[in-house]
Design goal:
The complex is a heterodimer. Chain A is an all-alpha fold. Chain A has 4 helices and no strands. Chain A starts with a helix and ends with a helix. The chains are: A mainly alpha, B mainly alpha.
Chain lengths: 108, 234
């Protein structure tokens, strides 16, 4: 168990490490025009990085999710994405169903 | 100073059939419970979401503390996992830019940049007049940020009542929400290549390098999408 002092230092380190990327982004944005090629490139890289994070979260999850079966996670994901499309992009239904479905499938 | 009507339009993105409130609640409740496990007190847990507000980084922090990593190691690991916020900011803020708006709004509100708020802003900015878009963004930001902090506290308080099955259930909600939002954003070839390429390359490169996987997968798939995607949209 970490001491209180270490925890506070960790919160500061995490917050600074995170804010650096956001603030650098805000500064860079001042020089980037919406119609430029570089903006389009950043846009593609942002979507790809996010997709990479999501792919990793499903295939190699961190934390408790790692205790569920990969095949069950994939079934839940595909079912919920299908629900999202069928319900004309409702997000509340698929997100509620995802937790319930994972629970049911894990305990079968 | 801030256009209240537009600000409220942003804040109201928390409501309705496309609300991010449930996924935000699910993942930050789970985080609150994890932070309690890692030895945080309630103020420290709330402070973590208040000052960091980026879930993958906070998970890395909690897990690193549990295995006794040094502060420097935590800093580097968090920086690597949250570096995605840099291209995300650069692909959003130029859309919100307007000469009549003061710079401090941009410098402060960049703190609200996280996956959820970014996806909502990308989805809705076109409906807002260019002059007021930053106020729309601040509305989205305040809404998602305060929800995250509140839910971290609730998660901390309810940690003893959450069993493992419930925590696993909570953990799947957020990736499912993000995937749906990403599928919804695939409106042109460029974004579609970027999303599909990133989803595949992320886990593949993760097998080779856990720390650099996100950066490399994002750069490679994003550049391929940029080169072959034609009109990449905005």
């Amino acid at each position: 168990m970490a001491s209180s002092q270490i925890i506070i230092l960790a919160i500061i380190a995490t917050s600074v490490a995170t804010f650096i990327s956001r603030f650098m982004g805000a500064i860079t944005s001042e020089k980037v025009s919406v119609n430029s090629k570089i903006f389009q490139w950043f846009n593609c890289v942002a979507y790809s990085t996010l997709a990479a994070l999501l792919g990793r979260m499903i295939i190699f999850p961190a934390g408790v999710l790692a205790d569920s079966e990969l095949i069950i996670r994939l079934i839940v994901l595909i079912t919920c994405v299908a629900l999202f499309i069928i319900t004309k992009k409702n997000l509340v239904i698929p997100t509620i169903i995802s937790a319930a479905l994972l629970g049911v499938l894990t305990n079968i | 100073m801030i256009n209240l009507k537009i600000f409220l339009t942003g804040l109201k993105s928390l409501k309705g059939s496309r609300s991010p409130a449930i996924p935000l609640a699910a993942c930050f409740i789970a985080l609150g419970a994890l932070l309690k496990d890692a030895g945080f007190n309630i103020q420290q847990s709330a402070a973590s979401s208040l000052f960091t507000y980026a879930l993958p980084g906070q998970l890395v922090m909690a897990e690193s503390l549990l295995v006794g990593a040094s502060i420097i190691n935590i800093f580097i690991a968090v920086w690597l996992v949250n570096f995605r916020l840099y291209p995300m900011t650069v692909s959003l803020f130029p859309l919100l830019d307007h000469k009549s708006q003061p710079k401090w709004k941009y410098y402060l509100s960049c703190h609200f940049l996280a996956v959820t708020s970014w996806l909502i802003a990308k989805d809705g900015y076109k409906k807002i007049d260019k002059k007021n878009r930053i106020d729309f963004w601040i509305g989205i930001g305040i809404g998602t940020w305060s929800t995250a902090i509140l839910m971290t506290v609730i998660g901390y308080l309810s940690a003893d009542y959450l069993n493992k099955d419930m925590l696993i259930g909570l953990a799947i909600v957020n990736p499912v929400y993000f995937f749906c939002m990403m599928i919804g954003a695939m409106k042109n070839l460029g974004i579609s290549i970027a999303v599909i390429g990133g989803t595949i390359l992320g886990p593949v490169i993760y097998v080779i390098s856990t720390e650099w996987a996100l950066l490399f997968a994002g750069l490679i798939a994003g550049t391929i999408a940029f080169l072959f995607g034609g009109d990449n949209g905005k």
